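Support request, please re-run this one:
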Amino acid sequence: MEAIDEKFKIDWTYNSNAIEGNTLTLQETSFFLQHGLTSKGKTLQEYLEVQNHAEAIDWIKDIIKDKRALTEGLIKELHALLMKGIQYIWVGPRENRVQKEITPGKYKTQPNHVITINGHIHKYCEPIKVPEKMGKLVNFINNSGRHPIELAAIAHHQLAAIHPFDDGNGRVARLVMNLILMQKGYLPVVIKKEKREEYYRTLMKADEGDISDFIDLVVKEEINSLQLIINVIKQQ
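Re-run finished. Output below.
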C-alpha cells in the first residue's frame, strides 16, 4: 500500500499543479519528491508548489487519522500549508496584473478575478461575503445526507465558486474534495491535466445550475482510482 500511496501523491500533486500552470513534468515531479532532484530551467516557485502540495496530502492523511472534523479553521490551515512562500498574479480593476505575495491561511481582502480558459474575466464572491458563505458551506458539508461522491463534488464546486483565498483556490478545492472522499472510505480522485478543459467546462456548467456533469466526472475518476489499485495488485 505504501507504493500505491506514493503513486497517488505524485500523480495528484503533478496534475493538480499542472492544471494551474505549473510546468514540471510528471517525471520531474516524481524525481523531486522521491530523490530531491531538480531540473534546469524550472523556477523555485514551481518546486515549492510541488513540495507544499505533497506536504498538504500528508497533512490530510493525519487529519483523517485523527478524525478531525472539517471546519473553516481546517480549510485555512490547509491553505496556509499549500501556499506558504508562494506569489500570485493579481488582476486589478483595470485588468492590470501585479505580482503579489499570498497571505497563507487568510481569506481574501480584495476581489480576486481570474482569466478563464476563454480569456474572459470571471468575478467571484466579494471579500466581505466570504466568511458567511464559507460558514454555510462547512455547515452543509457536515450535515448533508448526500452520497459522499456527490457531496465531495458539490463541496469542490461551491468552494471554487466562492474563491475565498487570494490564490490556490482550485488546489484547495481539490484537496477538500478528496478529504471528504477519504474520510468516507473512498479513494482520492485525480483530475488529469489532459482533462483540464472538460473539468473547467463542467464547473462552469455547475455555475449555471447543473452540476450533474461534474459529478459524473468525479465518479469516473473514482473508478479510475479503483482500477489503479486493481492493476497494482495484479502486478504483485
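Residues 212-235 form the longest helix (24 residues). The domain at 2-235 is CATH 1.10.3290.10 (Fic-like fold).
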